[in-house]
């Protein structure tokens, strides 16, 4: 292979590897009153038994000697607000300071390795193994303690820092709430929730969800809710197609409330609600329900919290009457 061919192969590899989106971490250690840190993107959770994590560091990085000598290190996963922290430890002459870093606030946990304040998560480790891997050393750490907070990650993709878009954040939040709701919904369904209990639960949370949606929902979210109502109206003659859309209207209001507890509670009623509604739906009741959904939607569009709460309460009352009949 010629030198040019080898260079093209390396360039192709870098381009392909750069298409893998990764989080950004700072690896730190402490030794004899000095602190050391370096930015790294090759963090991997390795094992639960024992608790092991890995990160790869260039074989020429001076931090490796410090980690060998200290026997400890911390991996700090950065949040999207910490791009400057990443840049601080990525530049030449990075990450060596006496007792404290000049630009980054840290604290210590179990091992004495610096933990970056505000990090999305952190892993405080003792050295388990250091393995050779070409021009990098694979540092395997046994986790002594770990922790973190909430927020969105700082991402690195195709040679640049990235952030989740607002839409992606919303989808991530919805997915988290959805997993909680689904788990509880299955348990309620298996438990055999009675119709009276379902109606009581709906009356407890759904009027509040509608009122909060009138206050919190964005215009784009309200437009999606309108599209859902309009789609359900097309299928009032077909209970099999109408019911899922009707259920989605209620679940969507929970998400639009902006309150994760209310959203999860409303979503958790989906399976019991599906079972109860399926045997009571006909074209007349579906048409009446769509009308109620439209009025609730209009109150939300008008940002009228009081009307949204009242209309949802009235709607649930009509639904209860139909079920008791």
Automatic annotation (TrEMBL):
Keywords: DNA-binding, Oxidoreductase, Transcription, Transcription regulation. InterPro entries: Flavin_Rdtase-like_dom, GntR_C, NADH-dep_flavin_reductase, Split_barrel_FMN-bd, TF_FadR/GntR_C. It holds the Pfam family FCD. Residues 17-163 form the Flavin reductase like domain. It comes from the Bacteria. Residues 197-318 form the GntR C-terminal domain. Transmembrane segments: none annotated. Belongs to the non-flavoprotein flavin reductase family. This is Flavin reductase. It comes from Saccharopolyspora oryzae.
